[in-house]
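User: Second chain of the day. Same drill as before.
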Amino acid sequence: MSYKAIATILFDAEQAKTVLFGAIQLAQHTGAHLKVICTGVDHTEIGYYYAGAQAIAVQQNLDMALEDANKLQFHARAVLEAAGVSYDIEVETIGVGSVCDFVCDRMRFFDLAVLALPYQDQSTGLDVVAFEACLFDAKRPVFMLPYQGSAALAFEKSMIAWDDGAQALAAVHAAGPLLAAPARASIIMISPATNVPDRSDPGGRLSEVLARHGAKVDIAILAKTDRSIAYQLLSQAKKENADFMIMGAYKHSRLREAILGGTTRDVLRLSDVPVLLAH
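Assistant: Same format as last time:
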C-alpha cells in the first residue's frame, strides 16, 4: 500500500503556512500527487439584510470570497512550483453553510487529507468543520498539523497510541505508507484492559504485523499516572522524540467528548506534534 493522492483544503493565508508546507513535505516523502483546494468562503447569512439589499450583499460577498480564493491560489502555486511536487490546484467559492458537504464531496476520493489541528487557540470554526467532514462524512484518515508555521517535518519515528480497538487499528492501517522500512514505531499502551484477546502479550500482534512491513518496533506499557490520558500520551511522544503520533479517533461519541471531554478532543486541542487519525 502507498499513498497515490493526498489532498488539503486552504481557507486563509495564515493557515496555509502550516497546512500547505506540511502537505508538500508529506507528498515529497511518499511520492504522492497533491491536490490543493483554495477556498473562499462567503459568510452571508440569508435573510439578515434588509429588503432590497440581499442581492447586492450576496454578490459583494461572493466577489470577496473569490478574491480570497485567488490570493490563496497565487500563493500556493508559487510555493508548489518551488517544491517540485506533482500537484494540481482547484479554486472554489462556497457558502459557509455548505462547507461540510463541500469538504466531504472533495476529500472522499483521496487516500489521505492533510488539515490543521482543530480546537487549538489559533484554530477557526472552519478547521473544525473540515476535520469532522473528512473523518466522519468522507470517512478519510486525516494527518493533522499544529499551527507552527513552515517548520520542517520528519517521518522517521512514530508513536502509536494503541488500545486494541477498531479505531486504533484503522489509524494504523491508514498510516501504513509511513510505517514501512526504515521507519521506527513505538506502540504505547496505557493501563491496557485485561480482557482483550492478546492480554498475555499486549501489542504483540500489532508489533508482528509492523515488523513484517520492515518497521523497527518497540512496545511500552504504562500505568495511568495522569488524570488525562491525552496529557500522558503527549508527554510520552515528547519523551520518545516522536515525529508524529497515530491514534484512533473518537472511541466515544463526538457529543460525549464535546460535553465531558475525552482523549481525542484533548489531543487535538493540546498537541504540538502532527497526529494521524482515523475512525
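The CA atoms of residues 158 and 185 lie 5 Å apart.

User: Great, on to the next one.
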